[in-house]
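Example 3.2
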Amino acid sequence: MAADANDLPPWYTVHQQAQRWLAAGVFEHIVDDLRTVLRLAEGRTAQPSAVVIDSRTVQSTPESGADAGYDGAKRRRGRKVHLAVDTLAIY
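Structure, written as tokens:
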């Protein structure tokens, strides 16, 4: 069932709370807890002992302008994104 506009709090209230959670690192703690639960469910230790470093190029748009660089290996303009994932590919 879709929420009616009257069922939701004012946008600025939601925005302010989200900003407080971001500043307090709440989302990072949620991700850490979720990673631990998923690893334990797989029968592994809570903390990974190895990581895989990966990168990709996110293709640029005309709006990205000067922010976009050129990835010579993939021969495309865009922004390079680097990731470190554990062996379960959990960010």
